[in-house]
Task: structure prediction
Amino acid sequence: MELQTVKFYQTGTFTVGNRLLAEDERSVQANMDRTNSLNSGHRACQGCGEALGARYAIDAAMRATNGELIAVNATGCLEVFSTPYPETSWKIPWIHSLFGNAAAVASGVAAAMRVKGTPGVRVVAQGGDGGTTDIGFGCLSGMFERNDDVLYICYDNEAYMNTGVQRSSATPPAARTATTPAVGREPGNVFGTGKNVPLIAMAHSIPYVATASVANLRDLERKVAKAMEIAGARYVHIHVPCPLGWGSLPADTIKVARLAVESGLFPLFEVEYGEITGRTPIRRKVPVTDYLRLQKRFAHLFNVAGEGRVAQIQAIADRNIAKFGLLEEARTHG
Amino acid sequence: MLKQIEGSRAVAEAVARCRPEVICAYPITPQTHIVEGLGEMVKSGELANCEFINVESEFAALSVAIGASAAGARAYTATASQGLLFMAEAVYNAAGLGLPIVMTIGNRAIGAPINIWNDHSDSMSMRDAGWIQLYAETNQEALDLHIQAFRLAEELSCPVMVCMDGFILTHAYDRVDVPTQEDVDAFLPPFEPRQVLDVADPVSMGAMVGPEAFTEVRYLAHHKQLRALKLIPQLSAAFQARFGRFSGGLVKPYRTDDAETIIVALGSVNGTIQEVVDEMRDAGTKIGSLGICSFRPFPLAQVREVLQHAKRVVVIEKCLAVGLGGIVSDGVRNALSGIVLKGHTVIAGLGGRAITRAALRQLFQDAGNDELEQLTFLDLDADLIQFELEREARARRSGPTAEAILRRVGTVASQVA
Result:
């Protein structure tokens, strides 16, 4: 294979190119020995945040386990775009069973590894937000509660994208989806609904919970690698923009993800045994409008009637910032 | 070794000797003692090299078994009634994936109205899910069928349900011969999967198949069941050769050689039917019975072979196909295609109503006298039905039907006679 020259450089957004880092601190993707677990040629849309997140997460998990990894997949975009037989993008053992049982199937695989005397082989379960926060939630909570040796990764694109952008319990307030259309007196998704599964995972006091974003891929890799060093139930919740469902430009996926983090709408934090042990400070706080304006699903907010509702979303971001201390930390260390 | 034990315990001991590697348990009402017995054996170390997992639902129980089986472990669970329905999606999935899971069904009714007692509504609802379904007549057969089931499942890469009547078998203390570990080991080789999640040889399992091949994949599932029609009698014979007793097989004809009336049924009621057949034979009636052990695959040829010379067939069904009648009857009629004889469907034993010898004797006599309707409900209280229909006709808001008829019946124990 002919090697391609890759240029890395420091960007204006506080991210740092690989060439400025020591070899062992560089991204798994910067290494030619990466496994390409989710290989090229799949059918994801342009700018798919989930494909990017899955590629980084699973390759990082593969490196952390010396290639001894089995993946279980819930029904959803990732399952569909990566596989229809006879093709598959998966270069690791992979199974899809149902929409709502990925965590339980993974528990079964982990049990088989213990009983077969191959506990070195680790298990990752993965699903979208629908398969995780809604239909798969019972199995997920059961896996957590039993402290089964499974890393569950949720790729959160905030709605059921595979079926045509319907609301999930991870859909944010005001977002337009096929089942929360932008019509009526309060267009889009209802305020005051939804659930925060990372915090619910935290309440299970499992060994490790983290949120991550495709805007900060090295942080994502670090969290997955850390998760694989821990035995028991672990949960990583990755924010993955969906250009199709969000009405954002494919080229803006990283930008949109970053604005979600920097506005405070998607806080990055780590939890060990029910205690918050890490948070990623916001380096440069942006108003939520910077994030919302790039997405057609929030277009209805930007008229006269939408003003109060934008303020409500800003209040949610501000509450997150206060709750997780996302700015205080920046001042301390900045 | 002969033991006087509960049916559930007998099954637990049989399953333990099959060396399961992952057992999942969820105690949905109604629960049997099977997984409790196995859990104790795992915890005490009596059953070694086995993971026992307490899950949060029946859906999870079978899903854990799916993961374990796909990863190469011999997996087992037990369920019944609402539990089986709650795992329905995974029931189809396990069969579609070709995973040789064995699951006991302690047959019970399905609500509403909620009812924990025996009938076949649960397993019948899953008859087309792609699992092999074997129905035990006795506790000994239930025990034996589990040993055969693991071998059958693993030879075909097809899951197997062993169905045994809830309470009537699962909770009955009976004498059973529990085989030795050595004999079971000799009969049941270790599990060698056709497909497995292996880091040394990665495969993708369970991906999408479109119209271009879905029919072929489904046909092969059917073909697997056709192969089971040959394999089930072979395994039953091999089992008899090693353990010295007959259990399983496709069908069990009883005194059918010159029978004009043949009674068809599944499960434990066959014991009662055979007693009535004996009584009526003694009185000179040409009657026999046919127990069907393998309901899926349905042994069309064997059923036809036994029934074709009879004058009439009475199918006793412990499940009602609402709006039609009987489910087993459909298969029987299919088996008798082109043969003209009288066919009767009798819905009996729903929700645990006792099927008595007296009621059966009357029924079979009515059939012999050609006084039986095509579809009847054994011991149906016609007055009660009439009362409720009239009550409902009187008022639009007539309230819950079940409550009204129970008020009429009064607080009584389950009626036996």
